[in-house]
Amino acid sequence: MVPEVDPSLATEFALASLVVPVLGLGAYRLGAVDITGYVAGLFAGITVFWLGGWTWFVLVFYLTTVGSIFTRLGFSRKAGLGVAQEKGGRRGWRNVTANLLVGGVAALLFRYTGVGLWYAFFLGAVNSMASDTLATEIGLTSAERPRLITRLRERVEAGTSGAVTWRGAYATLGAAIGGGVIGTMGGSALGWSFPLAIAVAVVGGVSGTFFDSIIGATLQGRYKCRECGKETERGTHCGSPAEILRGSRFMDNDMVNVVSSLLGGSVAAGAFLLL
Ligand SMILES: [Zn+2]
Q: 141 CA to middle of ligand 1, Å?
């Protein structure tokens, strides 16, 4: 017996396998990802393009592009403050996977069930990552000393997890609306109205970013280096294990992204059911 192949899905797969590697190579050449990030991006990108369709992939492309552009915005100043992304802003496989894992699973569930709810989930999850990345990277360019989201009276160092600025808040909203406008393409394919797609994406993106800050300020591991005495989010510093000050060793930056995109996707799915 020859297994049945859905001809439309075979076409989508072929198209995805052509388009995603080329766009990914562009992202690699422009310094958005390193080679491991490129490979992780291929898996996630092809999955989303193949199982969701090109309209879904456009949102992933949006996340990658604006994330990369705004990571470079004021990069030398961020580097001077010690808050810039490592490796000149190139993101590795852990970062790429943390940003796209939940969205990829949503595409899988959508194809398996055929239920539009999973598009709402996808929209919220991926838009959370776009909004959070922009909130972080644009917020870091602000001269304002950030406050901790859980104790708004307290000013903290720029780059502290859970630190928020007005500029970051505006960036969150702007990025979430941008993702919403792009999300209308996938929405109209499912018969959604424009306002519905934008509302679902904005509610998901903003709440995912909010959760990211809350978890960053509470559950995320924070350490003190035993060698140089610096406070850091990395479990090792100066080549040796750092002392944990608060939070959990399990909850690093990437895990915070996975959990907050899961929550952003869930809120978006809830909004879709209510609207
Ligand atoms: Zn150190």
A: 25
Q: ∠31-35-39 over CA atoms, to 5°?
A: 115
Q: Is residue 241 part of a domain?
A: yes
| pTM score | 0.93
Range of the domain at 204: 7-274
Distance between Cα 83 and ligand 1 center (Å) = 15
CA 185 to ligand 1 centroid distance, Å: 47
- Ligand 1 center to 245 CA (angstroms): 14
In a domain? residue 2: no
Query: Cα of 92 to ligand 1 centre, how many Å?
Result: 22
Residue 1 domain flag = no
Who contacts 218 (Cβ-Cβ below 8 Å, separation ≥6)?
A: 150, 162, 247
Q: Spell out the per-residue pLDDT of the chain, length 275, in tens.
A: 444 556 668 888 999 999 999 999 999 999 999 999 999 999 999 999 999 999 999 999 999 999 999 998 888 888 888 788 877 889 999 999 999 999 999 999 999 999 999 999 999 999 999 999 999 999 999 989 999 999 999 899 888 889 999 999 999 999 999 999 999 999 999 999 999 999 999 999 999 999 999 999 999 999 999 999 988 888 889 999 999 999 999 999 999 999 999 999 999 999 999 99
Compute, in angstroms, the gap from residue 244 CA to the centroid of ligand 1: 13
CB 64 within 8 A of CB 32: yes
Name the domain count of the chain: 1
| 239 C-alpha to ligand 1 centroid (Å) | 8
Distance CA(244)–CA(222), nearest Å, equals 6
